[in-house]
């Protein structure tokens, strides 16, 4: 094994054809890189190939910049959509929340103990700071952006300004109860994660726990997905469920749902930040840990 | 404990009001019955009360017929919908299947080893006996009833005739791939169980595994429900799911689904036969084991 | 339905014999009580009967004190071990933690939003207040009680003093990493809940995640149990597991385990506080929600 | 994509070092092979690297024999432990059973519908053919080999003779209730799969369901593992669990366990036959589907 150095994560997708793995892995070998993890997927329906590689570099071998520059030529030859990140570079994440703060509190906790590799670039809410009186924001900028039908455009413009000004790369709707406009959804395409409190595609729209109760299902769930302009139809990243019974009132479902929501959202966000999620049309490829 | 005697299962539902449990349990005590299991549910939405009691009778105390006769007076006073069965009396079940026989084979196996308390009153299929060449039907009557659009009425008339003539009390659509008409659904109301190969209410209708694959869900499931004239909308008895991934083709989902389908259907049927499932409008109360 | 009044929870166990349910439910009916939930279990091995009843009282009917006084006579006649609580009376709970605070933070959050019905009577740790700098204790008394082998007796004496002085009824070892002595275990018998980070009886003792990694299991879990002098052998209240793989390092198991631990402990504590857990020798009867 | 040809599965393990993936994938590319699936694992503890590759070959390119011959040189240079199989070549599997036939019946069913890619080379039981009167063995050789303490050596000698004479490559203890001797375990090392009816390492040895009932666990499980001379300590391939409660008698656990056992064993066997399971000391690397 090489001496411990920085680790890099390379992700790529392209039309499938023979030789991709050989080309990529030979490039890495010649640059003095050692592959630590690699996962790939050949989608025989769409004809696309997806790959994620984690590698480190032998001491004294190439720098990140050199690897990036060299790989650009490989990528062009293979018509790759690709990304290369130093694993230690944490993405900046903007959290959006509303009144219910269980997902927000959970993400803050996981961030604090180093479980989710991110910097929090800010917290946006349509509720005031007092709503979260018991949460220690630890110096993170808080933006109170109330919203009405009449002011939605201005409010979203301000969200977008904050997103950009804070150097954010990802937005998380942590039970943010406002539907994003098509325009903002488009701007945040592929980098905005929502948690929907049902096992999609069942119970789209409002009050899914009440819908689930009314239908009498025996399991209920939550879904983390990328936000698109088509409400509750974005690419699904992660889902989970728990067993319920006739005894559970809608309030019981809300209570039990909090646990599912927070773990599903935390997983989806972690995987996104570790470059484990690749878009494949309206679906995702998730190279799980 | 009393000497071992027959066990009885009493189920009841009624508008809730104080004193029901006292009245029922006092009646049983006075008849020399010992309660072995009891479960109840007070639906505060519908205002209905549901109860299931398993009891046995002290040697020399009342007979089943005496208990039944005596309880009728209690039931009338409380406006109960009720049923009383000797646990040893097995219901007669008509199995309906089509080409895929994994649920049929599974139910036959569980019946043979005594896991599901039933007599099988017959097997109906729109495919010929050779389709199941490797299955030992053990003398159970097999009815080959092919069906086309033009002959559906006649075929269903024959199914109904067989159901009645064979003394059947329950029908099971064990991946029987024909939609029952409204008329037959109505006749079998509350005693016909279907297994739908999706986690309802997601992916209603045809080819649910292909729908699930196209949507990119991360869990897939199966649903056992009572058949109603409203397709895939009947009261749900049991559901289960398994985790899937982007790697799973529709064929993989079909394969993995077989395991979910057969265990969900077997559970739902067993619970129905043990009088654990009570109808509550368009939902069910399930007193699980 | 009666007008909304206080709800009461009655739990009892006794040697099984006919007539218990009749006697109890008739008593409640005569006092003007309406049963909202009832669950019972007849353990044919030990010959003991267990019951939990939630009821409310018609306006103008008996008070809690009257019901309690009246029931004492019933209880004596039937040789019951029993308890009767006003559901609105919250028990006082002493939380004990060490360095890792994920369970502590989780319980505080659930308490704050009203999910777990308790008052927190104090927080004890062998680490200093700064360890939890980011947690808002909201005025709850914090007791820093460092401990060494030499001072264990004195430290436990102080824990016991705090438990009594604060009016505590339950102690929770929320990843408190000190083994309680036999003496303190005995004093807290049946009212001290621990979370062990393995799926007991596998991987007792220290570093269970490392043990699980070394053995190569494919699922890992956590166990909430009552503390007894026999380490990791106390009556189990709740367990849960998650799937792991060969890729998971011991550190990954620690990370994934945090989610299991906190939900298993929260469930066990909630059920204990709702009088859903009854001791049955070295096992528990859990009337789940 | 190349025209559809035979698919091959390559598995390998070796001491980790840079360049393995490059070397292997470049070899395959140069031989006209297209990688369809690839999974790898770098065990940083043992310093070993594991890889599984599924590929097909362009029409007119190399034959399987040519690929095998060419790869031998690569393998020697890298000190690989490796295997290369035509995916269409089904392994021959010897099934061993005792009185309870739920796993046997299940494997036969899955084999018949083509779900598990194997040929069944024979069925061995210490019970007579009549025990399985309702199972259609479809011409598979059945060997009744009763056994006593005194005849164990002779009986195992006969098992081994049958295993060899029938060209078997895998043995499956499908609830075969005899403990294999150290000698036979050694001969079948790495190719004999057992299903143990507990969630190992909990409840080793006899009557695990009764042990689980006595301990009062809230989940129970089953474990498929390779047989070694150290009873119930072999490398674990797959495990699963289901929730149980205080209501479940040991007989209920036996019943519920059948479902877990058969799906865990079927998964483990399928994965073994698809070369998804690689031995890593006393553990396994499982490249799941």
From TrEMBL, chains A, B, C, D:
MF-aspect GO terms: formyltetrahydrofolate deformylase activity
Enzyme class per UniProt: hydrolase
InterPro entries hit by this protein: ACT-like_dom_sf (IPR045865), ACT_dom (IPR002912), Formyl-FH4-Hydrolase_C (IPR041729), Formyl_transf_N (IPR002376), Formyl_transf_N_sf (IPR036477), PurU (IPR004810), PurU_ACT (IPR044074)
Key words of the record: Hydrolase, One-carbon metabolism, Purine biosynthesis
Catalytic reactions on record: (6R)-10-formyltetrahydrofolate + H2O = (6S)-5,6,7,8-tetrahydrofolate + formate + H(+)
Similarity field: Belongs to the PurU family.
Job of this protein: Catalyzes the hydrolysis of 10-formyltetrahydrofolate (formyl-FH4) to formate and tetrahydrofolate (FH4).
Name this protein carries in UniProt: Formyltetrahydrofolate deformylase
Gene: purU
